[in-house]
């Protein structure tokens, strides 16, 4: 049985919407064999059907150029071939499964229940990859231009004389002023509204990206973080007394030998469920930073990330769809059982008891 795919949603996922120079998606569906059939036409491209399938190599999961391509007619029309070659050069990190997620109509359920289930997913698996690949090169250039204004973040647990070489730059906080460390808001007057800092005025590309990606009206703090070559962030939880604290995290750069682990034990050591997050530039995730995490930059290059305490501009039902697929837990009963099993191993709560009772009832 073929799976429904919305052509307009797929157009947006492919970055073709609202651009007359690009072809339109005329129709699309997923076949019984798991191939995504996409019929394109317009923008100088004659009607052409592309058949996309996932790359065989798991390491190429997020690489569109490693997705196998075939065509409804052979040979491919020269205009279509030229367009495809150009498109693949400019969209190297689109993921096959993410395209399906973005283009599959959302099954509308109870929004509150969807939000509760999503919270359980993040409590069990403390990260959720977002399907959109962001263009971050202009943002990285802005961050690099501000290097002299970054401040050193103090870390507990470092040996005497070691700094960790972790720096931050505030773009948005309660005080709305430059020079405040990343955790300054924890001690600020909670009645103060969040505001952009003067640095944000010098980073228009970053602010524009955030306004597209996040619920800016309700956005709290935003920082650019840099971990220098040879630096490290010691194992820690942003809020050990809580089970869920969400943070939007976007990689502006991620050197190959920079290792980000999340879901560590309380002492920072790795557990069977600890994950190394394979960020690449332009990839974003919602992280549960209540989970213990650590980062080591063993490379010779700095690592730049953008972090924000904010909801993202994506329907909860779509995020839940992503979480179910990522975690291979389509059933709420299986999710609750997995959390209960983890809690038995750890001897402490993994998720909110009230949340579990609400969804189990």
Under CATH, the topology of the largest domain can be stated as Jelly Rolls
Radius of gyration (CA) equals 22 Å
Could you state the order of secondary-structure elements as H and E?
Answer: EHEEEEHHHEHEEEHHEEEEEEEEHHH
Helix tally equals 10
CATH architecture label of the largest domain: Sandwich
Please bin the fraction of helical residues. Answer: 25-40%
Largest sheet: 8 strands, antiparallel
Domain count: the total is 2
The CATH superfamily title of the largest domain:
B-lactam Antibiotic, Isopenicillin N Synthase, Chain
Strand content: 15-25%
Q: Based on DSSP secondary structure assignment, what is the total number of beta strands?
A: 17
Separation of the first and last Cα atoms: 34 Å
Low-confidence stretches: 57-74
Shape: globular
Q: Tell me, rounded to a whole number, the average pLDDT.
A: 86
CATH domain class of the largest domain? Mainly Beta
Classification by helices and strands: alpha+beta
Write the layout of secondary structure elements.
Blueprint: E1 3-4, H1 7-13, E2 24-30, E3 36-42, E4 45-53, E5 68-71, H2 78-90, H3 96-103, H4 111-124, E6 127-129, H5 137-145, E7 151-152, E8 166-173, E9 195-196, H6 198-201, H7 204-213, E10 222-227, E11 232-236, E12 246-251, E13 258-264, E14 275-276, E15 284-288, E16 292-297, E17 303-308, H8 316-327, H9 332-346, H10 353-360
Antiparallel strand pairs: 1-2, 2-3, 3-4, 4-5, 6-15, 7-8, 8-9, 8-10, 10-17, 11-16, 12-15, 12-17, 13-14, 13-16
Helix pairs in contact: 1-3, 4-8, 4-9
């Amino acid at each position: 049985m073929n799976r429904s795919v919305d052509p307009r949603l797929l157009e947006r996922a492919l970055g073709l919407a609202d651009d007359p120079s690009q072809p339109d998606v005329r129709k699309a569906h997923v076949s019984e064999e798991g191939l995504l059939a996409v019929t394109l036409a317009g923008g100088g491209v004659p009607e052409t059907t592309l058949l996309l399938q996932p790359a065989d190599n798991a390491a190429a999961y997020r690489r569109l150029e490693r997705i196998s391509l075939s065509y409804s007619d052979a040979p491919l029309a020269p205009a279509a071939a030229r367009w495809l070659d150009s498109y693949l050069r400019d969209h190297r990190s689109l993921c096959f499964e993410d395209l399906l997620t973005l283009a599959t109509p959302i099954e509308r359920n109870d929004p509150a229940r969807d939000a509760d289930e999503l919270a359980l997913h993040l409590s069990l698996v403390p990260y959720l990859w977002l399907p959109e690949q962001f263009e971050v090169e202009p943002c990285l250039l802005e961050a690099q231009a501000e290097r002299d204004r970054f401040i050193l973040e103090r870390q507990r647990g470092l040996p005497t004389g070691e700094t960790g070489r972790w720096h931050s730059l505030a773009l948005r906080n309660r005080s709305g002023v430059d020079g405040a460390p990343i955790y300054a808001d924890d001690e600020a007057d909670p009645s103060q509204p969040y505001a952009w800092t003067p640095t944000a005025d010098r980073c228009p590309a970053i602010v524009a990206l955030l306004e597209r990606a996040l619920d800016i009206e309700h956005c709290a703090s935003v920082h650019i973080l840099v971990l220098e070559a040879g630096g490290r962030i010691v194992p820690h939880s942003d809020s050990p007394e809580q089970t869920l604290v969400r943070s939007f995290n976007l990689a502006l750069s991620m050197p190959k030998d920079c290792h980000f682990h999340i879901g560590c034990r309380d002492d920072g050591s790795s557990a069977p469920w600890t994950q190394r997050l394979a960020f690449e530039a332009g990839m974003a995730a919602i992280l549960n930073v209540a989970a213990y995490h650590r980062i080591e930059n063993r490379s010779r290059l700095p690592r730049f990330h953008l972090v924000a305490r904010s909801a993202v501009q994506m329907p909860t039902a779509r995020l839940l769809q992503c979480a179910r697929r990522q975690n291979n837990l389509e059933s709420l009963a299986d999710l609750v059982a997995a959390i209960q099993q983890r809690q038995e191993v750890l001897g402490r709560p993994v998720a909110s008891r009230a949340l579990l009772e609400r969804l189990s009832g």
